[in-house]
Structure formats: C-alpha cells, structure tokens
Amino acid sequence: MNLDLYVIKEGKRLRCGYTTGSCATGAAKAAVLMLETGNKANYIEIDTPANIKLKLKVHNQRIDGNKACCSIIKDGGDDPDSTDGMEIYAEVEKREDSKIVIDGGVGIGRIKRKGLFGEIGDAAINPVPKKMIEKEVREVSNKGYNIIIYAPKGEEIANKTYNKNIGIEGGISIIGTKGIVYPMSEEALIKTIYLEVDTIEEKYGKDNIILVPGNYGEKIADSLNLVDGRVKVSNYIGDSILYIYNKGFKSMTLVGHIGKFAKLSIGIFNTHSKVCDGRMEAFIYYLALRGAPMELLEKVNSAITAEEALNICIEAGFGEIVKDMGKGAEMRIRKYLKDENYPVKVIIYSMERGVNMG
Fold this sequence. Notes:
This protein is an alpha/beta fold. The chain has helices spanning 20-37, 127-140, 154-158, 186-204, 215-223, 237-247, 258-264, 279-289, 294-301, 306-315, 321-337, and strands at 6-9, 12-15, 17-18, 43-46, 54-57, 59-64, 67-73, 87-94, 100-104, 110-111, 145-150, 168-169, 180-181, 209-212, 230-232, 252-257, 344-349. The N and C termini lie far apart (58 Å).
C-alpha cells in the first residue's frame, strides 16, 4: 500500500515512501507469521523508528516445511530512488535455539572496507533495520530463526547507487534510520559524501583530496592529470570541506564550473540556486575591485548565465577576474575552516573557454 504521508519541498507536495529496511522487516515478520500459523499473510503491519506505522502488502508467499519466504515491494514515494519498485525478500527457517540470526543473500551487498556499520565480509544490512527485524519478529514469536534477506535484482540495481564508492559490493544495502523515505533528503546526500570521503582516506591516505560538484568536474580533473582521490560534493561544499578538514586531510583541491564557483568566490558554501544565486553579484564584485567602468558592470548585471557574463568580461579585457575569483574562493574557504594557512587550490573552468581562460 502506498504511504499516505507527504512533505513540502521547494513548494511542491511530495509523497514519502518506506526504506529497504522497512521492506526487509515487513517481509521477515510476515514470513515468521506464515511459518508459525501455516497460513499465507497478505498484509503485515510494522512500526518504524519515525513512529509511523506501515501496513505493507505481502507478495510471493511460500511455506515449505520449516521454511517460509515472501517479499515486499519497495516504495520510494516521490524520491528519485534507484531501489523504488524492487522486491525485497526474506526467507526464514526455524532454529533449535531462541536466537535470531540475520544475514544477506543474493543481491545484498557485502562490506569490503573497515569503518562502515559492520565487519568486512558482513552483509550490508544496517544496525537499525536489524533491530527493526528483531523487534517485529519478537512480536510474533520467541523462537529462534535464521533470516536471510535477499533481492533478486539487487546486484543490477546496485550499479545505479554509490555503494561501490563507499566500499559495498555485490548488491544493494538494507538501510534506513527512520524506516521512512523523505523525498529529496539532503541529510542522506551529505551522509553519502561523508562515506565517500572515508573511502578515499582508506585508499589514498590524507595527503590531498579532490572535490568536484559533478561528472564534468571529474573529466576536467582527468584532463589536468589530477590523480588523488575524488569526491562528488554536489552543492554541499561547506559541509564537505568541514568534514574533510576535520578528518585531517593535509590539503584539498576543488575543481568546478564558473557558475558554481562564482558563488563560492563570495562565500556561498551551498551553491544550490534555491539557497542563493549570487553569480552576477560575484562578477560585479571582482570587476569593481579591478576598477571596471559602470557600463561594463551594468552589462554583466543583465547577463543570464555565468558563461555569458564571463564572455562579456573577457571581451572587455577583464578575463583576469577568473583568477581573482579562484583566489577569493581559496581565501573564503580558509576563513570558513578558521585556518588561514590551510593549503587549498581552487580550479575554475568554463564549458566554452576551458580551464585557461582570459
């Protein structure tokens, strides 16, 4: 059943969903219920850490001797979630003791590096979903069970996630700290960035790290032969650099488009347009410092894109302001980190003009 819960994001009413952890919990509870009663369950109710009850439709029910299995279909709501619509299965088998043992099967990733939520080799099932499964199963029975969570399409879908970047291979993760998917969660995105930084630290050490907003920044980094570990930070530059600095990285290099880094050059550390759009203000600020005439300032102020503004500046003989912006961004990053001597390099590129502009 679709969850009748909504949030407002950027003025839009978006429907919430439920996590892979909630799916695994519902499937495990339903399978235990079927095993104990001998009857197929069509729906199952579970609690979530968000204090929201879920009534989940049960699919693919099967009872075979001392085993039972079934699935719950993941509902990501209006979140752009790659696991939306996939089936999460649980197979349960009775034990001779009263223990509940939870593991992952086909399509559930395995942890390949230290520092995550389990030991190397463990199934990628987070602690919160494990606790949810144990709690809900105990509402049905005090007996012992082996519980295998699996996802037939998990390995295929994992290729669309960040799992490999953070040290999880072979499938998806069973996750969710609240049991509910809140659409377009910034918290989830920032946590993914932190995990990627942790992976880079383990693989490359702490000498230098490269930050790029997205895929094109990576291509520019390749063209410049920048070989250190890279992390995609999207618009969350402030959160990312603070985490990296506090992790003890010795230096950082940022590679980004003029549109985003114009904002950074005047101290904007979340570059999403919904937060702030100071692109033209940045151009005007650095032009004014170079004594540009009012006519040029007004012309730039009427520009629509950063690329257009840059072309106007270059054609008027003020292409050097890109270097000024880079230095300004570096200065503001050091101030943001409260470390005036921290080694940081900012590289700005243009889609039209490349890296060496002016």
